[in-house]
Amino acid sequence: MTDTGIDQAVENYLASVRAELADLPPAELGEILDDIGPHVAEVAGELEGDDPAAALRERLGPPEQYAAELRAAAGYPPRAVAPPVTTRSALSPARLGLWLLAGACLVMLPAGGVLQPDAMFVLLLLAGAGAGVSLLVVTRSPGGVAAVGELPEVGWLRGRNPGGTVEEYARLFQPGWWLVRAGLAAAAIAWFAAGGTSALVILLLAVPLAVGSVWLGRRSQADRRWLWVVLPLNVFAVMLGLALLERGGPYQYGGSQVVYQDVRPYSNIYPYDSTGRPLSGVFLYDQNGQPITVEDYYGQDCLRGRVPVPANQFPRPEFDYDVNGECVVRTVTPTPSQLPSASIAPPAPSGSTAPTAPTATSAPPAGATSVAPSLSPSVPGAPAPSTTK
Amino acid sequence: MDTSQLLKGVLDLAVLAVLRTEDGYGYDVLRRLRQTGLEDVGDASVYGTLRRLYHAGLLTSYVVPSEEGPHRKYYSVNEPGLARLRESSKTWRAFADTMDNLLREAA
């Protein structure tokens, strides 16, 4: 018998054993082959006969049996059963469906954001087609909708959510969201149909839409196929809502203005320190370092021709008009409805979000820069300024 | 009686005992076991046992390059392995004595 014949037989035998133990960690498998490789080669070298492969099997037993014996003696776990087909095949119908649905949701991002009927129509059509094909693929596949839930991608998503807390919150806020999206749809329809937003029209539209939205929500909980309709529409609704807010829908989203509380705008701001002492010359900035100003500052007219006061310096001077119609500075000492007590110390200001340095024209006086914008307001409630002339 | 059934329970002890006298690689251990009279010991069982004892922290291993053929991985008994061997020996002796008495009475 030839040496190459022996080598070939040894190689084949070891390959079969390796295949039988392929479920073990690669490092461990390498160690085993380091042990048995020389052994099988040595045994083969001692063999006689014309068929080394058969002789080797005769001497050591079939490789499957050899591997099984080794596995039992080493105490390795029994051979892992092959995972279900859905997780192994790279492109199952379920996976195709999932990614098509994800694509449809992705297309909905710009669709909700454009606020332009033509572009929105095209994108909606595209997303609808994607979701439709996805649903068709998934429902026609043997696993059906349930197979999508068993995909490792979906499992990974679930793994991000230990204990199902997200699901718990989702369930809690779901009915609220159903109503919100109905309102958004109403606002969108009013926007496109009338080019504007009247509260009454939105309200009238919202009522039937809310009924439909709740029905859709409950329906999709019972029949997961509705998710193929609901998920892209939800993305659309969120984006539409954001776009409407940005474009100045019914609620103005002020960039760096202190907006409304109740309907009345603030006309001034009176800061207090933690001991309840009123502060003056305080400069306010938002999280972006932009100065915070009050809208429709009452004393604007009286400021003309005077020494300029930075718009974000508070409290702003208050003015009155005297009998001659001249501006007169008045002293205002608000009586806060609730003052901080010494026991409730405000959090230490953190400099991490310090505003950009004010420009020279609005430079705060020295000593005032320690008021960082990250400091949460220490005077809660609405101070009611009382005026003394 | 088929000794392979009996061997299953004491292969650990046999492998540790063989390695206590001298370090050895897999086939070497197998050969020495056979030479002492344990003819029925299975090749794969010995390798599996070596791996299990190694993972249990009773053996250490080192590789010795070989001039002809592949390098060889030697196993050697460490301190916990020796302790296990002493302990198992005691158990085995007590068990063997009991069996001896039992069989003597039966004879």
What does this structure look like?
The complex is a heterodimer of chains A (389) and B (107). Chain A is mainly alpha-helical. Chain A contains 13 helices and seven strands. The longest helix of chain A has 30 residues, at 165-194. In chain B, 65% of the residues lie in helices and 13% in strands. By secondary structure, chain B is of the alpha+beta class. The two termini of chain B are 17 Å apart. The model of chain B has no long low-confidence stretch (mean pLDDT 89). Chain A binds chain B through residues 28, 31-32, 34-39, 41-43, 60-61, 65-76, and chain B through 11, 25-27, 30, 42-52, 55, 63, 66, 69-73.
Strand content of chain B: 5-15%
Read across the widest sheet of chain B, the strand sequence of neighbours is 1-3-2
- Low-confidence segments of chain A, given as residue ranges, are 83-87, 249-262, 356-389
Using only CA atoms, what is the Rg of chain A? 37 Å
Percent of residues in β-strands of chain A: 5-15%
Helix content of chain A: 40-55%
Distance between the termini of chain A: 120 Å
For the biggest sheet of chain A, the summary is: 3 strands, antiparallel
From the helix content, strand content and strand pairing of chain A, which structural class follows? mainly alpha
Calculate Rg of chain B over CA atoms: 16 Å
**Please, what is the average pLDDT of chain B?**
89
**Low-confidence parts of chain B, pLDDT < 50 over ≥5 residues?**
none
Can you give the mean pLDDT of chain A? 74
**What is the number of E strands of chain A?**
7
- SSE topology string of chain A: HHHHHHHHHHHHEEEHEEEE
Q: Which word captures the global form of chain A?
A: elongated
